[in-house]
Amino acid sequence: MSNVEAIAGDDLRDLYRELILDHARKPRHFGKLEGATHRAEGINPLCGDKLKLYLAIEGGNTIRDASFEGSGCAISVASASLLTDTVIGLDVADAMHWFDGVIERLTGSGPDGKTDLGKLHALEGVREFPSRVKCATLAWHALQSAIEKQSGPATTE
Ligand code: ZN
User: Fold this and answer.
1) Interval between CA 142 and ligand 1 midpoint (Å)
2) For residue 7, which of 57, 73, 63 has the smallest C-alpha distance?
3) pLDDT tens, 2-20?
4) CA of 37 to the centre of ligand 1 (A)
């Protein structure tokens, strides 16, 4: 992760740089999740980001726990870390609401200001850098795949 400072300094607004750096350096919920009921792999060939997302969904509805492992650039790792922080304790429907919001805000596919991303707003800095958007959305695509139990790896392509 020697390029953390370079990426953050050049590409992200100062206001949210620290949050991204913090999660990239000290990813939360990193590692394989024992007792996972759902899992998905995400691959972003553009950047070389590769991660596995694990979910433990209780009663088919509540995300009791989540974790991820893998390797990638600072933004992909920070995004996955923020994702796990966000979805633990949520119902599946609420987690998918976050998925929709993040994809909408980061790809500009929805009207601006429709979704309040809270601390996930930190990820919006990538909007100015299209090549980085897929790094930030990778974990979220894996979340969708895991929840929908799609077979095969999720990819940003
Ligand atoms: Zn990346």
Assistant:
1) 14
2) 73
3) 455 555 445 545 657 888 8
4) 27
Q: How far does the chain reach from its first CA to its final CA, in angstroms?
A: 24
d(Cα 151, Cα 120) in Å, to the nearest integer?
28
CB 102 within 8 A of CB 140: yes
Contact indicator for 59, 32 with CB cutoff of 8 Å: no
- Reading the block at residue 78, the tokens are 């920070």
Quote the pTM value. 0.84
Type of residue numbered 133: V
Distance 58 CA to ligand 1 centre (A): 31
Mark 98-127 as b/e (b = at least 16 C-beta within 10 Å): bbbbbbbbbeeeeeeeebebeebebbbbbe
